[in-house]
Each structure stands twice: as structure tokens, then as C-alpha cells.
């Protein structure tokens, strides 16, 4: 699986020629034999991690509360299942937080929240903010202090701050604005005003209101008492408006900074009230205004989008290709078409923006359709832009860092894999599975691909194969039932060493006489790879249960989206 940034490559042993045969032979097929599959998991493994007996009488590594909290911060729940859909975080899914705080581990928990948030390891930011709110509202003084001290690090933009306030309100039995809470909210603004005043000015004008909270609400309720001239001006602007902010007396040494801030704030106000398109474009160019500063009535203006395109981030550009094409901005041979295609072919830019191949493929499929999945937006796809997206897809592989793990990928090749992924409806399960396998093949040294045919059958796919060729090979493979235990049974039968097993299927997560979690446990014991991991991805499933929730090395993915990729990345590198 792919890993984005910040992790050191793990050094693993290489496979011998014995280990890679006979799956390189396309004629070889695996059927489990009646021969004994090695020792049962009836004896405890002598290693240094705590183990407990499961329902089968086997020994597994126990999932402690810190690991459960870690799961919540990564996936939004303490269990072993990630769901690719927008779901509300539930307090009952974070009970481990309460136990850890009660046991005196609240500060350690806050450190974990901060670390995961700053390193961008979670699928979404919401669980970290939710967890921080739980800690901030706890009755443990040290935990509360640690949580509020981490507020500026975890909540880095106003959207996060508004979210924190919402969650903190939900955790409170009273008004929710005690002294510690007011002080922390005030500090969030004060620190930015002191060290990065222009950043704060951009924040308060770009993210004016989220989660039913506004900057005006937060500044009034926190009883902020500005210490710096910049903060005084920004506070007065938010609460009383631009003209009142201009009247404030300032120290001579701060005049230059304040003039810059006031000029910017005045430009955002002019843009908000603007009726002249030329003036708006001038303001965008001079003050580097962004899409959020543009009045709704001008968001269909070709010339306004020309101005925005000059500095739009590459991910936002890819997301808005359909919109810009619908307005006639990206005409064949135009300078804007050329600028977009050049950026799509800029490997350095794609790597810096951490653009993942799966997300580019989703964008390409959506753009090729010529319409959005929601609303009435339609466009005629530009051929050069589609070629550029195709190029960006392959270039973005170079931004993916290898893990050094040994992979066995098993994919469902049935006709039902042509249905859309739940969570990413613009791409089919087959295309998504092919793309993810391609990422692993191109980034990992040790990776084998199998198909669930009438039996488990190796698929001859090379690192050089393009996506369409991989899809053709999978489509032309006879299909059979998806027995999620077969990969481990095959590897155990043939003494093949793998660190990670990944099953890609639509909604068929069937298994035969051996339960997958029994198969993976037996494999660990026989091959002495005690932390071997199993991931089952049901790309169009509405729900299934394969993973043992008490086994830290098993994971179910329901549906598939970009968040699922982050979850899988973190899961593969995490040590049980």
C-alpha cells in the first residue's frame, strides 16, 4: 500500500526464488488441500506484547485503550471498520478516552491527538478535534490544561476552531464558556495576531462562519481583551466593521503592518459589495483574494476565474476543472488550457501537493463524464485536459513512498465489480481496485496479485502495465466466489511470507469452512509473522464484519474513498 510522507522505510528481508514460485507461472492455480495447515493457535506465542484468548481458543494481541483511542482518531470509531461515508461522530464510540483520562493518561492522550493531527495521519480532521474537545471538557485538571494548550496546534484554521467549539458545547452541561475555555479561544486569535497578523486577516475573511458559529460569536463570548494593535484592529473589524476599525489609534511602530492589514480588509469588503467585474478582478490581482471572497453572482464569470486561476492550488484546480470548462475558459489552444496542462504535467508540483493517484483517477473519470454527480453543471470535456489528467495520474505515483512490506493482493474479478464504489460513485469497484493494486505494484518491491476465479489464481501484472491493460487482464479472468480466507490458506499451504494481505471486492465478503480471522491467526503462528495484517475492502458494501474488533491487525473497509487510503496507510505502518 502507499504511504505519503513522514515515515521511514522499514527494512525487510528479501524473498528467495523459492518464495516467488510458482505464482509467477500463470498456469498455476491454488486450491486448498486436505493436508493439515500447520499448528493451531492453541499455545501462547512467547513475545513481549500482551495476548488474550479469543473465541476460538487462540491467542491474539490485546487491543488496549490507547490503541482504541488511536483507532478513533484515525477512523472515527474504536472498532476495526472504516466506512467511506459522511457520518456523525458518536460519543459512545470514544469510551476509551474516558477510561484513559480516569487512569491518569489524559496528557498522553492529548499528545497522541496532537501528533496524529500535525502529521496528517488521519482520514479526516474531525475525530482529532472531537477527541480534543472531550479532553478539554474533562474533570481532570492536567488533561484539561494539556488539551487547551494544544488548541492552536490541532485547530489550525477557523473551520477547525468552529468545530472544536461545537463539540465542546456538546460535552458541556452548562453554558460551556468557563474561564479556561474563554482564555483558550482568545489565545487562538491573539497568537496569530502577534506572529502572523496577515494570516489572521485572511482567515477571518475567508472562513467567516462554519458549524453555526462566526468569528463575531467567538470574540464576544471569549471576552477577548486585545493586547496588540493588530488584534485590536481585527477585533474591531469583526465586531463593529471596517470604518470603526480605521478609527483606532495605533503606535507609530505598527503603522506599516496595520496599513497593510487595513488595505487588505478594505479590499475584501469592496469585493463583498462589488458590482463591477473589472474592479473585482483588480482586487483579486492586487490583494491575492481567493474564491471565498468572490460574490456568488460573479462565480460564473470567465474573466473572474481567469484571475483566480493564476494562484489557485493544484488540488483546487483539479476539483474545479468541470466548472472552468463549462464557462468556456479552457478552450482548445487557449493560454489557460496550456497553463492547466502544464501544471498537470509538473511532477514537482504534484509531489509537493501530495496528490494521490487514486484522487487523480477519480477526477479524470468525473471530468470525462461531462457532468457532475450532483446539481446541473455540464461541460464538453477538453481532450488535452483529459490527457493532462492521465499524465498526472502516472506522475503522481512518484510521490508515493514505499513501506518495505511484503504484499499479497487478492481481487474479485466478477461482473458485479463494474458497479460504482460507495463513497466515490464516479469510479467503479474494478477501476478503483485496479488503481490501488497498481499503486502497490509500482511502489513496493515485494507484491503478488491473485484473482478469485474458480480458485485462487495468480494474475500476470507487471510494474510497467498501464491501468487499462490491468483492467483488461482482470476483466478477462474467469471469476468465482470471493472466499476471504483463501489468500492466507494459500500462503500457509505454500509457505509464502507476506506482511500484508489485502482483499478487494464489491459487496461479496463470503468465506468457506475457515473464518478469515482464524486463517490469519493460523498463518501468523505457522509462518512466525505475528503481526501479519489482513484488510478486506468491500467497495460497494453497505456493511459487513470480517475483522475481529479485538485484533489490532485486522481491518474492514466499507466503501472506498480518499479517506480509506489514509486509513490503510496508517494501519499498515502501525505496530500492534
From TrEMBL:
Residues 1-46 are annotated as: Disordered. SUPFAM superfamilies: TROVE domain-like, vWA-like. InterPro entries: TROVE2 (IPR040322), TROVE_dom (IPR008858), TROVE_dom_sf (IPR037214), vWA_Ro60 (IPR056800), vWFA_dom_sf (IPR036465). Gene3D superfamilies: von Willebrand factor, type A domain (3.40.50.410). GO terms for molecular function: metal ion binding; RNA binding. It comes from the Eukaryota. Residues 52-405 form the TROVE domain. It is found in: Cytoplasm. This is TROVE domain-containing protein. It comes from Potamilus streckersoni.
Amino acid at each position: 500500500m502507499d504511504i505519503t510522507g513522514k515515515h521511514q522505510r522499514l527494512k525487510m528481508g528479501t524473498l528467495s526464488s523459492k518464495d516467488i514460485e510458482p505464482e509467477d507461472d500463470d498456469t498455476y492455480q491454488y486450491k486448498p488441500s486436505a493436508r493439515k495447515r500447520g499448528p493451531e493457535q492453541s499455545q501462547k506465542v512467547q513475545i513481549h506484547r500482551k495476548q488474550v484468548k479469543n473465541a476460538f481458543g487462540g491467542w491474539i494481541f490485546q487491543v488496549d485503550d490507547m490503541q482504541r483511542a488511536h483507532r478513533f482518531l484515525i477512523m472515527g470509531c474504536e472498532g476495526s471498520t472504516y466506512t467511506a461515508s459522511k457520518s456523525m461522530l458518536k460519543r459512545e464510540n470514544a469510551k476509551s478516552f474516558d477510561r484513559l483520562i480516569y487512569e491518569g493518561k489524559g496528557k498522553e492522550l492529548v499528545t497522541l491527538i496532537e501528533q496524529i493531527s500535525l502529521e496528517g495521519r488521519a482520514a479526516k480532521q474531525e475525530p482529532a478535534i472531537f477527541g480534543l474537545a472531550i479532553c478539554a471538557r474533562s474533570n481532570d485538571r492536567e488533561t484539561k490544561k494539556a488539551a487547551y494548550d494544544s488548541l492552536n496546534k490541532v485547530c489550525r484554521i477557523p473551520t477547525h476552531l468552529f468545530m472544536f467549539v461545537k463539540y465542546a458545547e456538546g460535552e458541556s452541561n452548562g453554558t460551556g464558556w468557563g474561564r479556561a475555555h474563554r482564555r483558550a479561544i482568545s489565545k487562538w486569535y491573539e497568537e496569530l495576531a502577534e506572529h502572523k497578523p496577515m494570516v489572521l486577516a485572511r482567515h477571518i475573511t475567508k472562513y467567516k462562519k462554519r458549524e453555526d458559529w462566526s468569528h463575531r460569536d467567538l470574540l464576544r463570548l471569549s471576552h477577548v481583551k486585545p493586547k496588540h494593535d493588530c488584534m485590536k484592529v481585527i477585533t474591531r473589524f469583526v465586531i463593529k466593521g471596517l470604518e470603526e476599525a480605521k478609527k483606532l489609534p495605533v503606535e507609530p511602530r505598527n503603522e506599516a503592518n496595520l496599513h497593510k492589514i487595513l488595505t487588505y480588509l478594505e479590499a475584501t469588503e469592496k469585493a463583498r459589495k462589488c458590482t463591477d467585474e473589472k474592479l473585482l478582478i483588480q482586487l483579486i490581482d492586487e490583494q491575492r483574494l481567493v474564491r471565498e471572497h468572490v460574490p456568488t453572482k460573479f462565480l460564473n464569470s470567465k474573466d473572474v476565474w481567469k484571475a483566480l486561476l493564476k494562484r489557485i492550488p493544484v488540488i483546487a484546480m483539479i476539483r474545479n476543472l468541470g466548472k472552468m470548462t463549462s464557462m468556456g475558459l479552457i478552450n482548445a489552444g487557449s493560454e489557460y488550457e496550456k497553463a492547466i496542462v502544464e501544471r498537470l504535467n509538473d511532477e514537482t508540483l504534484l509531489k509537493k501537493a501530495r496528490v494521490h493517484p487514486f484522487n487523480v483517477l477519480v477526477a479524470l473519470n468525473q471530468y470525462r463524464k461531462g457532468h457532475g454527480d450532483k446539481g446541473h453543471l455540464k461541460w464538453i470535456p477538453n481532450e488535452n485536459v483529459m490527457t493532462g489528467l492521465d499524465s498526472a495520474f502516472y506522475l503522481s505515483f512518484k510521490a508515493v513512498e514505499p513501506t518495505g512490506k511484503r504484499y499479497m493482493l487478492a481481487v474479485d474479478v466478477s461482473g458485479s465489480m463494474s458497479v460504482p464504489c460507495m463513497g466515490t460513485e464516479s469510479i467503479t469497484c474494478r477501476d478503483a481496485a485496479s488503481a490501488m493494486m497498481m499503486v502497490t505494484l509500482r511502489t513496493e518491491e515485494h507484491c503478488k496479485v491473485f484473482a478469485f476465479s474458480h480458485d485462487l489464481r495468480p494474475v500476470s501484472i507487471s510494474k510497467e502495465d498501464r491501468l487499462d491493460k490491468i483492467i483488461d487482464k482482470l476483466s478477462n479472468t474467469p471469476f468465482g466466489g470471493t472466499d476471504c480466507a483463501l489468500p492466507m490458506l494459500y500462503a500457509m499451504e505454500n509457505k509464502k511470507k507476506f506482511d500484508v494481505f489485502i482483499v478487494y471486492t464489491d459487496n461479496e465478503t463470503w468465506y468457506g469452512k475457515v473464518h478469515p480471522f482464524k486463517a490469519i491467526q493460523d498463518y501468523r503462528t505457522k509462518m512466525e509473522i505475528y503481526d501479519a495484517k489482513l484488510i478486506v475492502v468491500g467497495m460497494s458494501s453497505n456493511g459487513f464484519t470480517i475483522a475481529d474488533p479485538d485484533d489490532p491487525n485486522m481491518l474492514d473497509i466499507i466503501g472506498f474513498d480518499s479517506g480509506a487510503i489514509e486509513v490503510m496507510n496508517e494501519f499498515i505502518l502501525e505496530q500492534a
